[in-house]
TrEMBL record:
Homodimer. This is Triosephosphate isomerase. It comes from the Eukaryota. Belongs to the triosephosphate isomerase family. Pathway: Carbohydrate biosynthesis. GO terms for cellular component: cytosol. CDD domains: TIM. One of its GO terms (molecular function) is triose-phosphate isomerase activity. It comes from Salix viminalis. It holds the Pfam family TIM.
Length: 249
């Protein structure tokens, strides 16, 4: 079964009200392939989610950049998965490497978050990826398999999961993985899903690449058979995001 391309724009902790409105206008005017070919999701900071959701073209969706690990309550500063559902936000990014490293989110914690978000009806972009040190020591596959296993241990239905392979050394560095490097890990991940979860999940789960994707390198990456789209950081704030979407056809 063909997998529909998926592209996420992670705006991270960027933007003023004025800048956010400009980005949305730019997206609304962009000529991109139909939603039958590519699913586009943009992820503004929490405070701008309702505004972006209300202004954004209907063929694009919005995602939060995080949510709390279980039902809301006395967790000051957190945003619950139920709140996102209540606001009509369909999707959430979980396990981004910036949260794993800066906020010490463990594999198990991310697995719990993914399971909880799915249980309330959110779609999840679940991020995994190795550091430079881990790659250089030859443990890339062991690292991403352990991160994926922590999710697989808690999740039985993968229909609403998109797996984002984002090598940490490529995020925000301008040092993109080569198409060969990315394809190698995506293929291994698909084999891991096949052997550890099941053939159907391996065949249907979108595995997208993230890490310094831009208008110049996206076409070669998207031509790889196991790359089903991108999670884009810096370039998702610029008009070149539309070029990256167009590369997925
Ligand atoms: C990201 O933050 O998920 C990301 C891929 O960032 P960038 O595209 O800027 O490397």
């Amino acid at each position: 079964m063909a997998r529909k391309f998926f592209i996420g724009g992670n705006w991270k902790c960027n933007g003023t009200l004025e800048e956010v409105k400009k980005i949305v206008s730019m997206l609304n005017e962009a000529e991109v392939p139909s939603e039958n070919f590519v699913e586009v999701v943009v992820s503004p900071p929490f405070v701008f989610l309702p505004l972006v959701e209300s202004l954004l073209r209907p063929d694009f969706q919005v995602a939060a950049q995080n949510c709390w690990v279980r039902k809301g309550g006395a967790f000051t500063g957190e945003i619950s998965a139920e709140m996102l559902v209540n606001l009509g936000i369909p999707c959430v990014i979980l396990g981004h490497s910036e949260r794993r490293s800066l906020l010490n989110e463990s594999n198990e914690f991310v697995g719990d978050k993914v399971a909880y978000a799915l249980s309330v009806g959110l779609k999840v972009i679940a991020c995994i990826g190795e550091t430079l040190q881990q790659r250089e020591s030859g443990s890339t596959m062991a690292v991403v398999a352990a991160q994926t296993k922590a999710i697989a241990d808690k999740v039985s239905n993968w229909t609403h999961v998109v797996l984002a392979y984002e090598p940490v050394w490529a995020i925000g560095t301008g040092k993109v993985a080569t198409p060969g490097q990315a394809q190698e890990v995506h293929l291994e991940l698909r084999k891991w899903l096949h052997d550890s979860v099941g053939a159907e999940v391996a065949a249907t789960t979108r595995i997208i690449y993230g890490g310094s994707v831009n208008g110049a390198n996206c076409r070669e990456l998207s031509a790889q058979p196991d790359i089903d789209g991108f999670l884009v950081g810096g370039a998702s704030l610029k008009p070149e995001f539309a070029d990256i979407i167009r590369s997925l056809t």
